[in-house]
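Notebook B, p. 112. Complex prediction, attempt 2.
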Amino acid sequence: MRDALVSGVPLNLELDFVYITPRLFVDNHSLFERHAYEIKRHALSNRYMVLHNHETRPQLFATLIGLTDHLGSESLRLFAQYSRLHEAQVTTEASVPHLRLALDKYKLPGPVRLGAFVSNQWEFDTGWITWDFEN
Amino acid sequence: MGFRELVKKASGPLPVITVCTALLFALAFLTIQSLGDDNAGRTQLYVMIVGSVGIAVLIIFLITNGYALYRQYARNEIGSKLTVKFVAIFLCLTLIPFSLVYYFSIQFLNKGVDSWFDVRIEQAVEDSLLLSKTALEGIKEEITGDVETYASNLGKSLGGSELLKTLDEIRELEDYSEVSLYTDTGQIIAFSSADAETMLPDTPGEQVFSELRLNQTHTLLEPISESAQQFRVVAPIQSNELGRQFYGLQVIKLLPLRYATLASSVEAANQQYAEIVFARGPLKVSLILTLSLVSLASLLFSLLAAVYLSKRLAAPIANLAAGTQRIAEGEYGTILPVVSSDELGILTDSFNDMSQKIHQAQRVAAHSQAETETQKGYLEAVLTNLSSGVLAFDDEKCLQMNNSAAIDILGLDPSGIVGKSALMLAKQAPHTKNFFKVIDEGIDSGQRNWQKELTLLGEHGRQMLLIRGTLLDSSTANFPSNEDSLGLFSTATHDNYVIVFDDVTGLIQAQRDAAWGEVARRLAHEIKNPLTPIQLSAERIKQKFTGKVGPELEDTLERSTRTIVQQVESMKEMVNAFSTYAQPVRAQLSPLDANQLLSDVIELHASVLSDIDVKLKLDPQLPSIKANATALRQVINNLVINASHALEGVKGASLLIQTSVANNVAGQYIDILVADNGPGVPVEIRDSLFDPYVSSKAKGSGLGLAIVKRIVEEHSGSVAARDSKLGGCEFHIRLPVNAMQTYRGNRAQNAVQSDSTDTGQN
């Protein structure tokens, strides 16, 4: 993935905020918010760009670390914001807010897609993560 | 519908063609998607899954069809071998061009994809990017120099009241989109924007202030949209104020449209080319994978088509073969469906016509066979119930058939006699040697009809046989065989001989008995009646003249009358004996212990046999027989008396009386043997020993053995005389345990049986 990004291949990430309610066999996922991020490298400025929800003006980062730090802090911020925002809408006490950041393989370039579906090198998924701010 | 039928229907041509068509479309779409770069990624995944499932279904179809064909081949089903041959041919025709096309397609694909990434193109893209960077670098240096100059100038007039105005003048003079001044903590001191609606400046990030602290100017080309870029230049202004390290002058200048458009174009082209270069490997893999899937689908489709076409081509031929086999197995009248109008259809039509004709012919033949079977059954019934013996010989004098009467009369072992020659049959049963010799001579004589009489001395005693032979032409010879008694008649193509013979012993004996009976009756009537008056007259003469004549005459009278009386008595005895012989035994049969009877008779004659060494060898296992005890006692009496007479004057006289059990095919018998070491029977009377008035004794009546024979035969038995191992004569009596056990043709014995049916015999 890193090589692809450095080579100029844009990557699309999805940030999902859901409430998960445990059930007998399959947990219920109630999707509340979704953010899309497009990451790509700007060759003329030699910077990494992040486009949030198809905004026209990107954010620029000199390094990938800076970019990932930004995504992490942004995710945490959104989780805290949405947890407070949607708390009133959740009626079940068992429902727990979760956040996941994952690569959207379907938006990869056509030739890369088939390989991405079967290769572990294209696996980028944080899984469902939750934080307990009170504790 | 069962699972097997469901699978069979699902594996039919229509579902397979549908799956293959859908699969080919899906794979074509997959190929387009692999080359394209649109946003239909999810559809591409679904299509790939559908394609894989389709190929899996095709493989399952192929496996099920192949397995079904293998099972048919293993079971040697009709048409399977031909189908396999067709499949093999189609396979060869498909695989060779397919392999060539696939190989060259892979080669072309590799070369083709590589050709897209020409070194010159890559160099041109890189050069264009470098050129753009160089051009922008010049602009950036120019702007940076200007901003640093303005920053230096501003540093001298920071404390003045004309700062905002100065910023406006700089912005307007240099056509900047925004000019702003910040403290070292990032606070805005003043800013000037070309956009009047802008309330706040575009503040630089913390990273920029870090550079300013190092007294470095920050310059950066920033993309602000897909087709617009701006330069952000932030220059430090050294401060002499206490507690303030520096100020920062930020200038934002939009890249001119002409440059911006070119820069965006170069950036986009570079990005696309970079993507393609990165996707070079995956693209080749995707295309090869797609090509392989398409090829595999095509190959599977070809194989399935080969199987279906082979089955379709072989089906009419297999039907014909199956129909032929059914006819060969006797299932005539088989009609095959005519499914086409080509040569195979004409052949099937001809086959149906032939099958119908064979069926009609078979029905006619079956009808004829049924009639023949009926006639054969009738003939067999006649032969079986015929009292005459019937033998059929072929031209090599081998026995072809016989009836049961022939076996009974000749006393043959019925097993395995059919097919044997007359000579072999004679060796098998020596007592029939003369019989088969007569047949042999009769056949050799070549006469169409011949007749002979023969006397056999067999197990049943002396038998008189009347033999008639007939030559049958090959055209009329048609006999059932004993070996195939329920099958078709064996139609002979050569001459056959039919021998019919009757045991006339009983008949002759009956005639003889009738003659003797008539003689006895006449003797009793003509001779016995006058004897009493003669005797009475003689006694009256003697009584009347006794004492009235002289002594000499009286002596003569006495001797004469005594002689007359004695002779009359003798004649009476003779007539009585004759009468006894002639009178048939109306026996009331009852269980009899033969051993006990023999012991009683020997005991009765103990005084007569006092000088003879009598040996009794009586079988303790001897079963009881059904017999007339009085008649049998007379038989034993006669034989013992005969023996005692024969042993008179014989030194070391010995008499052996022996009993034993005898079994043969006709049933169970007992044997009674009376043997002595006397002088034996003269040769000249041996053949007529049991005839009346045949005797070797001077005083014998000649009726004793005749009575023995008559009584024994009337008990369904037989008696024979032969030389004894003791040196004299031996009489062998064989009596059935059950009097019903009789050999055929003995009419006298049948009469005895008829009389005894009310005694509960079987």
